[in-house]
Amino acid sequence: MAYGRFGVPENFLTLTTDQVAEYSAAAQVHYRADYPYHNWNHAMAVASGTESISNKLERKGLIIAKGALAVAAAWHDAG
Predict the structure, then answer these.
(1) pLDDT value of residue 66
(2) Other residues' Cβ atoms within 10 Å of the Cβ of residue 24
(3) Strand ranges for the chain from DSSP E
(4) Is the pLDDT of residue 3 over 70?
(5) Distant-in-sequence, close-in-space partners of 39: CB < 8 Å, separation ≥ 6
(6) Exposure b/e, 29-62, CB count within 10 A at least 16 = b
């Protein structure tokens, strides 16, 4: 079951790898290539940085919803 205007699934914090890939890829069409900064390349740079930080936190024993973070990073400037 989904909720919210974007149809975010209730299991957002425990997404599968396929779901992360699907939701992240869906963000790409919402970025404009002609924007000098807030474009898809920027979104992927943020996603990469987020992955690096979440890996460091995970190694310290902190519980992280890595899939949710990846999707959030992909969508953070969309639209």
Answers:
(1) 87
(2) 20
(3) 2-3, 8-9
(4) no
(5) 31, 32, 33
(6) eebeeeeeeebbeebbebbeebeeebeeeeeeee
Tell me the per-residue pLDDT of 23-49, one tens digit each, with 9 for 90 and over. 889 999 999 989 999 999 999 999 999
**21 class by beta-carbon count within 10 Å (0-12 exposed, 13-18 middle, 19+ buried):** middle
Q: Round to whole Å and give the CA distance between 47 and 34.
A: 20
pTM of the model: 0.76
* Cβ-based neighbour number of residue 14 at 10 Å: 11
Question: Tell me, what's the pLDDT at 2?
Answer: 46
